[in-house]
Amino acid sequence: MSEMGAQMTGLRSWSVLLITTWAFTVCFAVWTMFGVTGIPIRAQFNLDSTQFGLLTATPVLTGALFRLPLGIWTDRFGGRRIMLVLLLGCAVPVWASAYATALWQFLLLGLALGLVGASFSVGTPYVARFFPKERRGFAMGFFGAGTIGAALNMFVAPALINAYSWHTVPKVYAAALVATAILFWIFSAPDPARAAASSSMMQQLSVLRDPRVWKYCQYYSIVFGGFTALSVWMPQYFRSEYGFSITQAALLAACFALPAGAFRALGGWLSDRFGAHAVTWWVLWAAWVCLFILSYPKTDLIVHTIHGPAGFSIALPDWLFTALLFVLGMTFAFGMASTFKYIGDDFPENMGAVSGIVGMAGGLGGFFLPIMFGVILDQLGINSSCFMLLYGIVWVSLILIYFTEVRHAPAMGETPSRRPSQPVATASGARGAAT
Question: Which of 267, 330, 376, 385 is least enclosed by beta carbons within 10 angstroms?
Answer without folding.
Answer: 376
